[in-house]
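pinned: reference chain
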Amino acid sequence: MASGGLPPGSLLPPMRELAGVLGVNPNTVAAAYRTLRERGVIETDGRRGSRVRSRPASTPRDALRMVVPAGVRDVAEGNPDVSLLPALEGALAAAARRHRQAPTLYGADPVAPDLARIARADFDADGVPPGPVAVTSGALDAIERVLAAHLRPGDAVAVEDPGWGGSLDLVPALGLRVLPVAVDDDGPRTDDVARALDAGARALVVTSRAQNPTGAAVGAQRAGELRELLGRRPDVLLIEDDHGHGIVDLPVYPLGGVTRHWVMIRSTAKAYGPDLRLAVLTGDEVTLDRVRGRQRLGPGWVSRLLQYAVVELWASRAVDRAAVARSYGERRDALVEALRERGVRAHGRTGLNVWVPVADETVVVTRLLAAGWAVAPGAIFRVEAGPGVRVTVSRLGVAEMPVLADAVAAAVRAGVPGGRND
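pinned: its structure tokens
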């Protein structure tokens, strides 16, 4: 459908017929048709069968999430632990006082000078190359603006697989093509990045730390390999998403500066709260100038009130980064170790989530729901990667991990002979 091989209005074969042609279980075809229907790509009209929609809709992958019944523990949501988020009353009151003394009016700099100074100092401390600072309404807003600043419909973007569903939805929504890149615990695999670049990717999106959903973090060796590879591809647009800033204690190894156009993005969502809707980014002057110029033609700027509040939170060290990282780390490690003891392989190096490869997502998700646990199906996060489920640890205590691990192990055993996922 994406390539035009099945144009709008095309009639799809009956599910059993297609299953026979492909040599797969009819339930597999039914699940694929259901996903396409839920995302608005096809429509079904009873006995008349299924057709490609004349005007395909764009439905976010998050729409595939199930409704969590009462009494079921929700470990699918991906939210931070609210008990680790700072109180906002003082920061918002301080922002209001600053606004009263000097209201922000049209024509003001879109970035509060104090926020630019603090953000740039943090970038400098982590070895991020020099560059101006911009502010957007979250990380995905920044990624969209950067991609739109350089690419045209039809261009290809190398994206982590499994990876953040927001990015996987955004790229095609912009008329761009997704080239999936495999991920291990050290981030995007160098050989797969090289393959994507050879296939024509004009941009690469990398998660520096706390990769969603696997918890991967780009280590020193992987960073060196990627920098060497990108150094031979100076025309590639590089986007680094360091949304783990503030909740991860592993160092960041920046890749920026080896290509002509690059950015590093840091969101406040995980450390300070998703509703702040604010991210800071730095990068080369051309890219930042284009982002800020286009922003002026739309929303104009991100509210200075929010920027002042973030300045207060950042400057006062309202979040104990080491303590937050330790808290999430203890929970992730407890679950990964408990699963290992039960013969189940899992990944969770940094961040809020643990990724569990499975043989059959539907079986595992369904079994866990019956056992009282709602996990996120891997289909939300993957293109070509193998099936899996994502477990968010932020609302769990360490003592609960063995109980959850028992349920996961039982669900995995139900989905594959031998009960192992390796």
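why pinned: The domain at 62-84+320-415 is CATH 3.90.1150.10 (Aspartate Aminotransferase, domain 1). The first strand starts at residue 42 and ends at 44.
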